[in-house]
Amino acid sequence: MRFVTATRIVFTAATLLAASGVFAQVGPPPAPQYEAVPAARAGYVWDPGHWHWAPARARYVWTPGHWQVERVGFRWMPGHWDGPRWIPGHWVR
Question: Which of 67, 54, 57, 63 is nearest to 32 (CA)?
Answer without folding.
Answer: 63
